[in-house]
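--- STAGE predict ---
source: upstream dedup step, 1 unique chain passed
mode: sequence only
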Amino acid sequence: MNLIRPFCGLRPAKGRGADVVAPPYDVLNTEEAIERAVGRPWSFLHVSRPEIDLPTGTDPYDATVYAKARENLDKMIDAKVLIKDDQAHYYVYRMMMDDHVQTGLVAIASVEDYDSNRIRKHEFTRPVKEDDRVRQIEAVNGQTGPVLLAYPDAPIVDDILALTAKGEPDMHSVAFNGIEHTLWCISDQDMIQTLTDSFDAMDAIYIADGHHRSASASRICATRKAINPNHTGDEPYNHFLSVIFPHHQMKIFDYNRVIRDLKGLSIDEFLGKVANDFTIETCDVAYKPKKPTEYGMYLQEQWYRLQLKQGRQNSDDPVANLDVSLLANYLIEPILGISDPRTDTRIDFVGGIRGLEGLEQRVDSGEMAVAFAIFATRMEDLMSVADANKVMPPKSTWFEPKLADGIVSHMLD
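--- STAGE serialize ---
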């Protein structure tokens, strides 16, 4: 089976992209989704967050929500706001955020290769979130939220994507936050075959974001395969919707930490314990780490630069070498007593897109006692962890820009 395949995408009709394209379902809460959908009857939020069209207080996991998603999707198809291609394509998808540009391939990826770990993972999933995606996919009989993947060095693929993106786009939309989303169709059969062959030659590709979406696709595939006596492996349920970018173009922001208290320590006592494993320098301005093993720390209106002392890294373990792991293992757990950041309410996480000001605000408000700015995880680090079949700590990566919903969907009929 091919690692990836072209497919007949369901996508906005010509000129309707700006009406349809919406933020990904999991970056907005219900109230924010309602606000974004005001005056936008064709926003894909009516499919991805359909509780916005139901009575206030409706449980987002209620059966009526998933039924509403199907109803709203059918309306968009009946009104020809969304149209399904009659031939299989690959699609080139470009995102532009300020001066950052990344150009990837929209394709359907093999569930079989996901199950065998050729499509590599680096996170655990939560059953409740998997269940939600399974129910949504089953309700609409399609995959409307793409999985964000990365591919290793492949100049031939890069060249085809760049060449295609020089042509007239099939869709262009500027999102609410100024990020540009542009789509081109690839219909040339020689080009399609070259792309398919190029990916088949890769040892692996990597999940960057979308572990729950890929896991839910695997579950649905297993269920449908088991009840299909004529299963061939070519059915749409054998693949999941993906956007695959070259790893060297992807941008990971820092994912920073804020802690509610110092576990009863005075500031001097706390700094004294930190000094056992870190050198500490005061800073006149907010400090953003410039290299691995370096941290910014904000405490009582003062910024510090922390540098992990030599000899603290375990060069054999790609997870232990992550900056988020080093901070946890040498400071957050032994000094502040937080051993499980997934469940401990004393710790919270702030995406680097909010800047260092976001950390200062949490501490200056009195809500939090101390904040840590962390050097952003690198794609090479993520790939090393996945290659080692290991799992990254929670909240290790924050990818920007985010994929939009509604640009292309993969229907399972």
